């Protein structure tokens, strides 16, 4: 027999939540997202508190969903599943943490994705900051989580600490990854350097996304003339935040020490021929299919120019739990957008 939970305590909870919804919906449109996130957190906290104090089970969520949707038919965020997301939100974040970690600057769909995909607080904060800084959509955020950006960012082998002054050295180190994932290329393991190079240029938007924020593409097989000889850089970029040219050399085999000397030469030429007043020293990135840590460190140690070394891969297996996570996230994103539009129209 189902217990009737509609009593004085429940009505008091429902009335309090109604008032909170009404107050939140009338705030300035510029704060709609922040207010809505805080509202969702408050509802989640109240559900947790009421379940603990009153001994209510999951039936209270169904009842609240029914009554809140009846009271506010123009708001689409009060489904039972979304209320469960709110409860989980309250379990994962305190009121203070929401503002301190800038979680309230993210759309609701992003927050739900992070809650279910990431359990480590430091890792979750990393993705929050990256999403805000780079303006990632939810699909981009999911892709970055699936490809484990947190563990790849800043992991290239470099000599930046010795060759660049701070904070340029730290920023440059944080800009590079290891490994780089080129899953968007339909190439086999035996693909030649020129095939990889052409593929990256043909998919320049995806390539730039993998490189990260701030890279501006300048050219493929970029021509440099030194005395009476011609040289060609595989890929040349300019990084807006670093204010520096970035030379990328693509290699299909294992790293060899002589590759560092070749990059050192390219960087010297770029600094003399292309670098302008106000630009920082040019940076080199050697991308190979495999590398040896100690060998690479020895090769880079006595180079005069800042050089990084990373691997690149054509495929990366995804954790099974991420492939099937959040089956209703599309519905949440649509509901969130409708809420924003309703607030603006009101």
Provide an overview of this structure:
By secondary structure, the chain is α/β, with parallel strands linked by helices. Helix content is 54%, strand content 14%. Strands 1, 2, 3, 4, 5, 6 and 7 form a seven-stranded mixed β-sheet that branches. The longest helix is centred in the first third of the chain and has 23 residues, at 32-54. It starts with 7 loop residues before the first helix and ends with a helix. 31% of the residues are buried. Residues 316-329 have low confidence and may be disordered.
List strands and helices in order, with pairings.
Elements (H helix, E strand, L loop, with lengths): L7 H18 L6 H23 L4 H13 L8 H13 L2 H6 L7 H10 L3 H14 L3 H9 L2 H4 L4 E2 L1 H4 L4 H8 L4 E2 L11 H10 L1 H8 L3 E12 L2 E11 L4 E7 L6 H17 L9 E6 L4 H9 L5 E7 L6 H4 L5 H17 L1
Parallel strand pairs: 2-7, 5-6, 6-7
Antiparallel strand pairs: 1-7, 3-4, 4-5
Helix pairs in contact: 1-2, 2-4, 6-8, 6-17, 12-13, 14-15
């Amino acid at each position: 027999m189902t217990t009737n939970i509609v009593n004085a305590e429940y009505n008091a909870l429902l009335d309090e939540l109604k008032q909170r919804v009404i107050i939140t919906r009338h705030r300035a449109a510029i704060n709609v997202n922040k207010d809505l996130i805080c509202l969702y957190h408050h509802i989640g906290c109240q559900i947790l508190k009421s379940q603990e104090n009153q001994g209510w089970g999951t039936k209270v969520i169904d009842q609240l969903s029914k009554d809140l949707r009846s009271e506010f038919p123009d708001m689409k965020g009060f489904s039972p599943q979304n209320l469960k997301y709110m409860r989980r939100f309250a379990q994962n974040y305190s009121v203070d943490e929401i503002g301190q970690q800038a979680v309230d600057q993210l759309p609701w769909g992003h927050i739900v994705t992070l809650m279910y995909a990431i359990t480590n607080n430091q890792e979750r904060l990393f993705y929050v900051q990256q999403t805000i800084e780079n303006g990632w959509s939810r699909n981009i955020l999911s892709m970055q989580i699936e490809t484990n950006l947190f563990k790849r960012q800043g992991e290239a082998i470099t000599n930046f600490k010795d060759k660049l002054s701070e904070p340029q050295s730290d920023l440059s180190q944080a800009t590079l990854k290891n490994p780089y994932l080129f899953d968007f290329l339909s190439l086999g393991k035996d693909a030649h350097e020129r095939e990889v190079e052409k593929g990256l240029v043909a998919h320049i938007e995806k390539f730039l996304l993998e490189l990260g924020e701030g890279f501006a593409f300048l050219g493929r097989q970029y021509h440099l003339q030194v005395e009476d000889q011609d040289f060609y850089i595989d890929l040349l970029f300019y990084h807006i935040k670093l204010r520096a040219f970035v030379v990328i050399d693509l290699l299909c085999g294992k790293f060899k020490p002589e590759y560092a000397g070749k990059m050192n030469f390219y960087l010297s030429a770029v600094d003399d021929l292309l670098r302008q007043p106000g630009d920082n020293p040019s940076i080199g990135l050697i991308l190979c299919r495999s590398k040896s840590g100690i060998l690479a460190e020895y090769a880079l140690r006595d180079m005069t120019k800042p050089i990084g070394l990373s691997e690149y891969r054509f495929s990366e297996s995804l954790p099974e739990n991420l492939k099937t996570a959040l089956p209703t996230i599309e519905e949440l994103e649509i509901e969130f957008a409708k809420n924003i539009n309703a607030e603006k129209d009101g």
